[in-house]
UniProtKB/TrEMBL annotation:
It comes from the Eukaryota. It catalyses: diphosphate + H2O = 2 phosphate + H(+). This is Phospholysine phosphohistidine inorganic pyrophosphate phosphatase. Phosphatase that hydrolyzes imidodiphosphate, 3-phosphohistidine and 6-phospholysine. Has broad substrate specificity and can also hydrolyze inorganic diphosphate, but with lower efficiency. One of its GO terms (molecular function) is metal ion binding. GO terms for cellular component: cytosol; nucleus. Its EC number is 3.6.1.1.
Length: 179
């Protein structure tokens, strides 16, 4: 396969909204033609998947995609969680963690005692006054407030309509703390 007479070495594909649309109560809905397109690309070139999905682990997302009919390898899915953890460890940070309960255990190996920053993902129903205020208090107590987000989307589309994403919540904390 080549594009403009230059060989194509591979493809990076987003997942949510490209391969399937989210459903709050079910596995999701495949976007028409996406399974066939992914299979064709896999047969002809290298394919990797990138996502700012922050409500599920890579393993869970892989299992979901497999159930939806996609043929892919788990290690070909790249998500923000490992990079955020690497950054936190390299900078000796101790995050207050505000993420979806489905990925909370992904951060069990981080030191969260006496937090000096906030790590945020799409917490969905976990964004409450109490959870946001706890994050605010951590940031307010530091001289140089730091918010690390697993994505910065304004909203994402589910089959039941658009949903506010993590950026709005992160911006609220930024505003409140002058971060």
């Amino acid at each position: 396969m080549n594009l403009n007479n230059k060989p194509v070495k591979g493809f990076l594909l987003d997942i949510t909204g490209v391969l399937y649309n989210s459903d709050p109560n079910k596995i999701g809905r495949v976007i028409e033609g996406s399974v066939e397109a992914v299979n064709r690309l896999y047969a002809e070139s290298a394919v990797r998947f990138v996502t700012n999905e922050s409500t599920r682990s890579r393993k869970h997302l892989f299992e979901k995609l497999t159930k939806l009919g996609f043929t892919l390898k788990e290690e070909h899915i790249f998500m923000p969680i490992p990079e955020a953890k690497r950054y936190i460890k390299e900078h000796n940070l101790r995050p207050h963690i505000l993420v979806h309960k489905g990925i909370l255990n992904e951060f069990d190996d981080l030191d969260t005692k006496h937090p000096n920053c906030v790590l945020m993902g799409d917490a969905e129903g976990g964004f409450t006054y109490e959870s946001m205020n706890a994050a605010f208090r951590v940031l307010h107590a530091t001289s140089d407030p730091l918010i690390i987000t697993l994505g910065f989307g304004k909203f994402y589309q589910r089959i039941d309509g658009p949903c506010m994403d993590v950026a709005g919540f992160a911006r609220a904390l930024q505003y409140a703390c002058d971060a």
